[in-house]
Amino acid sequence: MIPSIDQCFEMMDKYYMPSHIRDHSILVARIAMLIALRLDAYGVDISIEKAVSGALLHDIAKFSCIQSHENHCHKGMKICENEGFHEISEIVNEHVILKNPILADQYNEKEIVNYADKRVLHDQVVSLQKRMDDIKVRYLPKCPHIDISMFNHHYEMCKIVETKLFTRMNFLPQDVPEYLINITLKH
């Protein structure tokens, strides 16, 4: 089942998502919606609902995992599965690192949410470079199991996804904030 926007907000309450993580998730969802709507308009087979719901719940386990040091992607996936939201559980699980190769002619909701998350620093839309610089400073020192070559590989994958997504857009990545003005979540 794909949760509705209202159900996603109920989940945020149920799992005590703090307001700053909620604000971040809403902005990620708006970017995911913008991209999914544009891809859909170009005839790409994409689920706008899965992209938006996956984005809204991508950090559902983040706050509890800060304290427990669990993997918030994996725990978030388990929460979604336990709630019956199987259709978005893998989107939540792969919002930090995509597990499958990026195919030039295929689009999916995992890539959209992964990319949208990499464009939001706290509650501001930023460039992919600025967000990745922030991740390098804020998270790499806390994650000794991630080496710099793994991080650099992930960054390269994010750039490939960005290029692929924006070949179907009639605007550039830096124009996302301008196009978000008309994107709202109705709940």
Q: How is this structure best described in words?
A:
The protein is mainly alpha-helical. The protein has one domain (5-180): Hypothetical protein af1432 (Orthogonal Bundle), CATH 1.10.3210. Helices cover 60% and strands 2% of the residues. The protein is built from 10 helices and 2 strands, in the order αααααααββααα. The chain has a two-stranded antiparallel ribbon with strand order 1-2. The two termini are 18 Å apart. The mean pLDDT is 91.
Structural class: mainly alpha
Provide a count of the helices: 10
The CATH first-level class comes to Mainly Alpha
Shape: globular
Distance between the termini: 18 Å
Domains counted in the coordinates: how many? 1
Helix content: 55-70%
Mean pLDDT: 91
Radius of gyration equals 15 Å
The appropriate CATH architecture is: Orthogonal Bundle
Q: Give the biggest beta sheet.
A: 2 strands, antiparallel
Low-confidence runs? none
- How many strands appear in the DSSP assignment? 2
CATH topology: Hypothetical protein af1432
Order of helices and strands, N to C? Answer: HHHHHHHEEHHH
Looking across the biggest beta sheet, what order are the strands in? 1-2
